[in-house]
From TrEMBL:
Keywords: Ligase
Protein name: Putative indole-3-acetic acid-amido synthetase GH3.5
One GO CC term, this protein: cytoplasm
Keyword Ligase annotated: yes
């Protein structure tokens, strides 16, 4: 289909989406039927006694709700080259690696053509709604995308990060062309072996084509902020390259140098213009529209753990709109952002009912308490039964369960979402947090969202001194008695001890969970510890993950570093410049 289309028919895509979401319940039923018919011959499903039945009731009665840990033995057999059809009706030839920032190590997840098609459907849907509000013409996109190397598993399968598997798929480039969102950088830069060199060349390509750039994007907001922080450091070198028409010696890979040589010609006028534009900025405010005057919007995932970077991104963006990209994971996609006009903090995702079969576990506080008291062994028996896509209620929070075309059946994604409304009969979800990322010492339960809000509140104190929290993480230190929270901050510049002590107290006071406050008052949880890191520490964390084979496009700073993630914990602990303990309680 894509080969015949030169430009995506936006209204047709929206019309198909409207029709489908008006009948979400039946579309879900048909989607489940299709998944089970295509994969009914898989060993996993054969052993569960479905016997060809494809209705939701039989499916829920026969197929258990599972975690990645439950499926690991099956996925490992696929990775090792099992000859039988283990999870799917057709052999899996590609494996995706999750970023590994949540658990400290990447997970293996099956990837197939059907998953690629759902990816493109999500892209097309959100683009259609986005383009209706912010139309792009046939320009270019400055995309900070990076592809890590694909390797071969023991069984001969291709293995790469989820983003790498998408970027390397032949359909991806065709889709970008159809959506008039072609990357301004050549493939050699995207697939370059060193992300620092690729980033420099992305910036250089963007400046060469500055008049044609209509959007700036990356998978995550972090990558966009990281790119423009880098530009602050290297802009004069970029100007020199443009002036002379010769690429800096810092780019060492022949394929990248050769590709850039075709684009780079001496252009002193452009170099002077960029120099004037940047020199005229006040503290880098409005950098993006100043350099790229025709940019319509900035696009990337900006919700969840990415919200921390919004303040800095808005600083760079000036008055250019920020639009959050779609909701998905290495395991598959959930929903598209069909309301590009809303503030990024209010972004919701409309679930596409034909890209998977979705269920939702209601999250009730009393159930959480019972689970906490009785231990993880009872978590499935204690929880309420999952509800279907159209049975969720506005204002309630749920954990997402996915059944995909790529061999995951009733799979707990581990994400907590809140239902904000409905688009026709499909829910619009707000991402809240990862369920398993929790700071807890005693009876306290603080989520990633609670941590982020505490950091935002305390960061206001250093904002008064014109400084900012570049990045942050946390850890529960149980080596002390009692255990206590440790918050790691990397700050942009010097802040007085007096202010940082108050920041530490503010962090401690900002965790308002009743279990935390009561435990702090009786010293069942020790004073919160703020550890201020040396500049560049989170760059070392990024380098660590890239060294493990992660793609920069997929990188998320781990917000809660557990004891199993000891390498990252070691990097953080080895780079502490100052330490403060709270006196708030």
């Amino acid at each position: 289909m894509l080969e015949k289309m030169e430009i995506l028919h936006v209204e047709k895509v929206i019309e198909e989406f409207e029709t489908m979401t008006k009948d979400a319940e039946n579309v879900q039923r048909e989607t489940l039927k299709k998944i089970l018919e295509e994969n009914g011959s898989a060993e996993y499903l054969q052993n569960l006694g479905l016997n060809g039945r494809t209705d939701p009731q039989s499916f829920k009665a026969c197929v258990p709700v599972v975690t990645h840990q439950d499926l690991e033995p099956y996925i490992q057999r696929i990775v090792d080259g099992a000859s039988s059809l283990v999870l799917t009706g057709k052999p899996i030839t590609t494996i995706s690696l999750s970023s590994g920032t949540t658990q400290g190590r990447p997970k293996f997840v099956p990837f197939n053509d059907e998953l690629m098609e759902t990816t493109l459907q999500i892209f097309r849907t959100s683009y259609a709604f986005r383009n209706r509000e912010f139309p792009v013409t046939n320009g270019k996109a400055l995309q900070f995308i990076y592809s890590s190397k694909q390797s071969r598993t023991k069984g001969g399968l291709f293995a790469g990060t989820a983003t790498t598997n998408v970027f390397r798929n032949s359909q991806f480039k065709k889709a970008m062309k159809v959506m008039q969102s072609q990357c301004c950088s050549p493939d050699e830069v995207i697939f370059g072996p060193d992300f620092r060199q690729s980033l420099y060349c992305h910036l250089l390509c963007g400046l060469i084509f500055r008049e044609e750039i209509q959007l700036v994007s990356s998978t995550f907001a972090h990558s966009i902020v990281h790119a423009f922080r880098t530009l602050e450091q290297v802009w004069e070198e970029l100007c020199f390259d443009i002036r002379e028409g010769i690429l800096t010696s810092r780019i060492t890979f022949p394929s990248v140098r050769s590709a850039m040589a075709k684009l780079l010609k001496p252009n002193p006028e452009l170099a002077d213009l960029i120099h004037r534009k940047i020199s005229g900025l006040s503290n880098w405010y409005g950098l993006i529209p100043e350099l790229f005057p025709n940019v319509k919007y900035i696009y990337g995932i900006m919700t969840g753990s990415m919200e921390h970077y919004l303040k800095k991104l808005r600083h760079y963006a000036g008055d250019v709109p920020l639009i959050s990209a779609d909701y998905g994971s290495s395991e598959g996609w959930i929903g598209a952002n069909i309301n590009p006009n809303v503030p990024t903090e209010s972004t919701t995702y409309a679930v596409l009912p034909n890209i998977g079969y979705f269920e939702f576990i209601p999250l009730k506080e009393n159930v959480e308490e019972q689970v906490h008291d009785r231990g993880d062994a009872n978590i499935l028996s204690m929880e309420p039964k999952p509800v279907s896509l159209t049975e969720v209620k506005i204002g309630e929070e749920y954990e997402v369960i996915v059944t995909s075309f790529a061999g995951l059946y009733r799979y707990r994604l581990g994400d907590v979402v809140k239902v904000m409304g409905f688009h026709n009969s499909t829910p619009e979800l707000k991402f809240i947090c990862r369920r398993n990322l929790m700071l807890t010492v005693n009876i306290d339960k603080n989520t990633e969202k609670d941590l982020q809000q505490a950091v935002e509140e305390a960061a206001k104190l250093i904002a008064e001194e014109k400084q900012e929290v570049i990045d942050f993480s946390s850890h529960v230190d149980m080596w002390t008695d009692p255990g206590h929270y440790v918050i790691f901050w990397e700050i942009s510049g010097e802040v007085s001890d007096e202010v940082l002590k108050e920041c530490c107290n503010c962090l401690d006071r900002s965790f308002v969970d009743a279990g935390y406050v009561s435990s702090r008052k009786v010293n069942a949880i020790g004073p919160l510890e703020l550890r201020v890191l040396r500049r560049g520490t989170f760059q070392k964390v990024l380098d660590h993950y890239v060294g493990l084979g992660a793609a920069v496009s997929q990188f998320k700073t781990p917000r809660c570093v557990g004891p199993t993630n000891y390498k990252v914990l070691q990097i953080l602990c080895d780079n502490v410049a100052k330490t403060y303990f709270s006196t708030a309680f």
